[in-house]
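Record now logged underneath.
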Amino acid sequence: MDIFPRSLRENLRRAVRSGDLKREDNLEAVGEQLSDIFQCDSLDLVELVMAIEEQEEKSPTTVGDLMDLIEEMGRMKRPPRSGKSDRT
């Protein structure tokens, strides 16, 4: 199961594109904004970051780090497409 559903990744990307967050922003400094984006409380946010650290053995410190790790985890966890026809 993907820790970060597509909607969460999209919300984070949208916040960066709109300028609400910057890739270089420190996660601790923008924790409240991230809680709003992810629609979770600060404890949930800490648990999400800890889950990333546990799975990836990396500790994100900036919004950009978090985005990169979320994208990386999303690519690794993406299930194979179904209904794809084999062409022979």
User: Anything to note?
Assistant: The chain is about 60% helix and 0% strand. The radius of gyration is 15 Å.
